[in-house]
Automatic annotation (TrEMBL):
Organismal lineage: Bacteria, Bacillati, Actinomycetota, Actinomycetes, Micrococcales
Domain of life where this protein originates: Bacteria
Keyword RNA-binding in record: yes
UniProtKB keywords: Ribonucleoprotein, Ribosomal protein, RNA-binding, rRNA-binding
InterPro entries: bL21-like, bL21-like_sf, Ribosomal_bL21, Ribosomal_bL21_CS
GO biological process, one term: translation
Organism: Ornithinimicrobium cerasi
Function field: This protein binds to 23S rRNA in the presence of protein L20.
GO CC, alphabetical: cytoplasm; ribonucleoprotein complex; ribosome
Quaternary structure, from the entry: Part of the 50S ribosomal subunit. Contacts protein L20.
GO molecular function, one term: structural constituent of ribosome
Family membership: Belongs to the bacterial ribosomal protein bL21 family.
Protein name in the entry: Large ribosomal subunit protein bL21
Amino acid sequence: MYAIVRAGGRQEKVSVGDVLTIDKVTAKAGETVDLAPVLLVDGSTVTTDADVLGKAVVRAEVMAATKGPKIIIQKYKNKTGYKKRQGHRQPLTQVKITSIDA
């Protein structure tokens, strides 16, 4: 059984035991969060009905708070002496899928 869940601004394919990195969640390590399923697949049964998916729950345990790779932003304008350099690391959360209940 697997599910497509909405995690932040993306959709992820998950099954029980998967570890994935999603956008930052406010929960602390060890707590559980519920992810909204968009599609459930159990063998040959595919569920996309909104009423059934409203009752379905995909639970995940928060493992750790992490950061994404360093991204360098540079701006430069010729002949004016304007240079600007800035860095960014996106805050992320690592979760492990514990159960998919339909």
